[in-house]
Amino acid sequence: PEVTRRTATLAPTGLAAAATPGSVSLNWNATSGATSYNVYRGTSSGSYSLLSSSVGTNSYTDTTVVNGTIYY
């Protein structure tokens, strides 16, 4: 049988967010060895849901935000 081995990488650093009405742009420092990132979001601290998987760059724009809502 073929076995696929994945190596864990460190979490990205330097996360920055810029909000405009109806969207939030996220940027972070690329992590050495990472080929893609998963982006999670929640409306309460400690409770997150997958927003997007396999993001191939170190930036993401969320256009599904609701103005006036606090996200984590």
Kindly describe this structure.
By secondary structure, this protein is mainly beta. It has strands at residues 13-20, 23-29, 37-44, 47-55, 59-62. The strands form two sheets. The chain has a three-stranded antiparallel β-sheet with strand order 1-2-5, with no helix packed on it. Strand 3 and strand 4 form a beta hairpin. The chain is elongated and about 50 Å long. The model has no long low-confidence stretch (mean pLDDT 91).
- Helix-strand makeup class: mainly beta
What would the average pLDDT be, to the nearest integer? 91
Proportion of residues in extended strands = over 45%
Query: How many individual helices?
Result: 0
Briefly summarize what is shown.
The chain is mainly β and 72 residues long. The protein has strands spanning 13-20, 23-29, 37-44, 47-55, 59-62.
Q: Which key features would you list for this structure?
A:
single chain, 72 residues, mainly beta, 3-stranded antiparallel beta sheet, two-stranded antiparallel ribbon, 5 strands, 50% strand, elongated
